[in-house]
TrEMBL record:
Species of the source: Aplysia californica (California sea hare)
Protein name in UniProt: Adhesion G protein-coupled receptor A3
UniProt record similarity statement: Belongs to the G-protein coupled receptor 2 family. Adhesion G-protein coupled receptor (ADGR) subfamily.
Keywords from the named record: Disulfide bond, Leucine-rich repeat, Receptor, Repeat, Signal
Keyword Cell membrane: no
Domain Ig-like: 226-329
Length: 377
């Protein structure tokens, strides 16, 4: 039979189709929507390259996903992973490149990368990681390149990279990086360990240091004598409030976490506010999932006229205090002014106001309400 006839033979076609199918799918029978190819020439070096970065249904977890143990490159970029649990990669002793960029990773448990003894490149950029420390980088004796840009870390504790003896390069670019005394150690460390931090890794805060490459700074540039600056500091509600007696008034204060001696508190007319159940006042401090923001809540269950005044959230640090204040005006619902009424919709619902005071903020009202109404009639 001539070669061309042979190619048309039905058995050959079947064999051809099967072998194409096998070469694409053989490694990923459990992961049909990941691309998989064999790489490496000699039998000893052969391994799989698995690309799940264009997965039609992004992975939310790695639990229950079984990747073949001889995977050498694993690309999980552009998935929806939130947490990396301890021992997630424990069977991947051949893995050399792991790409976890552009997920929603917030939590990396201590020991998450244990077992990755051949890993050279780890890409964690474009995630939501708020804090890092040494325990999340254990088990990576051969890691050379760590990509960590565009996360939410504001600082890096001394010793974070102590378990990475082969490290040569780290990228840490982000809009959160605070170049102050807490990063002083890193300049000495990159010198003694010959680690490169490219000049794309720049400072975000304090304002004076913005856009300066971290690796080009001098030790004396990294101090904590700057006046206090926070990336996030706001209160809700932020505008003066006109409220009724008996209303419930919840306040929220959000402030970026700063390493060191930071504290946050509510004050009313200069006095510290603490939880007082008999008064129906509750104060509670928590933080967001990635621990980058402290949330300080205050709820007054039932307002009365004694709650009128200035309510302030104060962040105190050794380099100064920051304050945000909102003014509260408490109105008695049964006060009748000689004004026609209009209905107005506010964030607290529908209220009926005397015409001349509708739309005015509480701070403008004090003592003026009667005059305004008199003018209106
Ligand atoms: C697999 O690769 C092909 C061609 O390179 C591409 O068109 C396809 O989107 C990839 N699929 C996945 C799931 O990555
Ligand atoms: C990780 O994957 C993303 C998206 O596919 C790519 O842009 C990036 O260069 C990869 N990272 C590394 C270190 O190869
Ligand atoms: C690192 O942070 C994790 C939680 O974010 C914590 O459980 C662990 O104890 C920390 N390790 C060190 C060495 O500080
Ligand atoms: C709560 O407030 C009342 C009235 O101001 C006061 O007498 C009481 O001691 C306070 N209780 C606490 C636990 O602070
Ligand atoms: C900052 O606040 C703390 C506690 O709230 C207070 O003791 C300190 O005097 C304040 N410092 C300044 C400069 O206002
Ligand atoms: C309701 O109040 C807002 C300001 O808070 C004002 O701009 C608006 O005109 C008011 N609407 C009516 C119907 O008075």
């Amino acid at each position: 039979m001539a070669a061309s006839d042979q190619r048309r033979h039905p058995l050959f076609l079947l064999f051809f189709v099967l072998s194409v199918l096998l070469s694409v799918c053989n490694c990923c029978i459990q992961l049909p929507s990941c691309n998989c190819t064999m790489v490496g020439s000699s039998k000893r070096q052969r391994g799989r390259k698995i690309d799940c970065s264009q997965h039609p249904a992004p992975f939310k977890t790695l639990v229950g996903k079984s990747f073949p143990p001889d995977t050498v490159h694993l690309n999980l970029a552009h998935n929806a992973l939130v947490a990396l649990r301890q021992g997630s990669f424990i069977h991947f002793s051949s893995l050399q490149k792991l790409n976890l960029s552009s997920n929603q990773i917030t939590i990396i448990e201590p020991g998450a990368f244990d077992g990755l003894k051949s890993l050279k490149k780890l890409d964690l950029s474009n995630n939501l990681i708020g804090t890092i420390n040494s325990s999340m980088f254990s088990g990576l004796p051969n890691l050379e390149k760590l990509f960590f840009s565009n996360n939410r870390i504001s600082t890096i504790p001394d010793g974070t990279f102590n378990y990475l003896p082969s490290l040569k390069r780290i990228e840490l670019q982000s809009n959160y990086l605070r170049c102050d005394c807490h990063l002083k150690w890193i300049l000495k460390w990159i010198k003694t360990r010959h680690v490169r931090i490219p000049s794309s890794t720049t400072c975000a805060l304090p304002a004076k240091m913005r856009n300066k490459p971290l690796s080009k700074l001098k030790r004396r540039d990294l101090h904590c004598d700057h006046s206090v600056q926070l990336l996030t500091f706001n209160i809700r509600p932020s505008e003066s409030q006109l409220v009724f007696k008996g209303d419930k008034l919840p306040f929220e204060c959000h402030a970026s976490y700063m390493p060191g001696d930071m504290s946050i508190a509510w004050f009313r007319s200069g006095h510290l506010v603490t939880t007082n159940k008999t008064m129906g006042v509750f104060v509670h401090t928590s933080h967001n999932l990635d621990r980058t923001i402290i949330i300080h809540r205050l709820v007054v269950e039932s307002l009365d006229t004694t709650h009128a005044g200035e309510w302030s959230c104060v962040v105190s640090t050794s380099s100064g205090n920051l304050t945000k204040t909102v003014h509260v005006e408490v109105r008695m619902p049964d006060v009748v002014l000689q004004c026609p009424t209009v209905t107005n919709k506010t964030s607290k619902g529908m209220f009926t106001w005397e015409e001349s005071i509708s739309g005015l903020l509480g701070s403008q009202l004090r003592g003026e309400a009667a005059d305004l109404c008199a003018l209106g009639t």
